[in-house]
Design goal:
20-stranded parallel beta sheet; about 250 residues; mainly beta
Length: about 250
């Protein structure tokens, strides 16, 4: 497990470096209906033009690299798109998109599933599933991970983790964890946990088998064991332990 993760990190840095050196003006991108890559570019139908080609359908026996994917991308190991990935993107190891400086003008949407990690340098809207982690600049939709989801912001979404969802901000969604949801701010949200939700601000409902922790809570708290908040405006109900410094009902 350790070796694939190290390889993934190295590939991410390599693709980022490549993007900074090889960024292509938008008008130079071309679109093709279908491409096939054997093992790795440029051994494929796009040849040496792979890095500035937007593919509607992309089929890769091992590693696929393109400017973007519009409909379907299937990769035996890694699927990489400089700008965005729309539609369905499936790979055995990792999906990587939006690492080019030009990617700031685009967003990705659809479905991503992979054995290890989905990594998007820009926004992603849709469904993500991975054996290890999902990383996005921002996210809307449904995320599921065996280990970790990391987002700078997350809205209108459902997140569920065997271990840890991390957000800078989460709005209008539901978070449920076997272990740990962590967000610095949050509004209009329902939290439920077997072990630990940690947030700075909550407006919504918290329910815990063990531990919801928040700085400010507006809404309803209910605990089988432990809701802890500095300021609560709403209703507290507990089978065992609600702790708050200031309560307004």
């Amino acid at each position: 497990m350790k070796t694939p993760i190290i390889l993934l990190i190295l590939l991410s840095f390599a693709f980022q470096s490549f993007a900074q050196e090889e960024s292509t003006p938008a008008q130079e991108f071309r679109t093709v209906p279908l491409q096939f890559t054997f093992m790795t570019p440029p051994i494929g139908t796009n040849g040496t033009l792979f890095y500035k080609t937007i593919n509607d359908v992309s089929l890769n026996t091992f590693i696929g690299v393109g400017a973007a994917s519009n409909i379907v991308e299937l990769s035996g190991f890694i699927g990489v798109n400089r700008l965005y990935s729309d539609g369905v993107q499936l790979s055995g190891f990792a999906n990587i998109s939006g690492f080019d400086p030009l990617a700031a003008d685009y967003s990705s949407e659809g479905v991503q599933f992979t054995g290890i990690a989905n990594i998007n340098g820009n926004a992603y809207n849709g469904i993500q599933g991975s054996g290890f982690m999902n990383i996005n600049r921002s996210f809307k939709g449904l995320q599921g991970s065996g280990f970790m989801n990391i987002n700078q912001s997350s809205s209108n979404s459902f997140q569920g983790a065997g271990f840890m969802n991390v957000n800078m901000q989460s709005e209008n969604g539901f978070m449920g964890a076997g272990f740990a949801n962590v967000a610095l701010t949050g509004t209009n949200r329902v939290q439920g946990t077997g072990f630990l939700n940690v947030s700075e601000n909550i407006a919504g409902i918290q329910g815990a088998g063990f531990a919801n922790v928040s700085k400010e809570m507006e809404g309803i708290q209910g605990a089988g064991f432990a809701n802890i908040a500095q300021d609560v405006q709403g209703i507290q109900a507990s089978g065992f332990i609600n702790v708050a410094k200031n309560v307004k009902g």
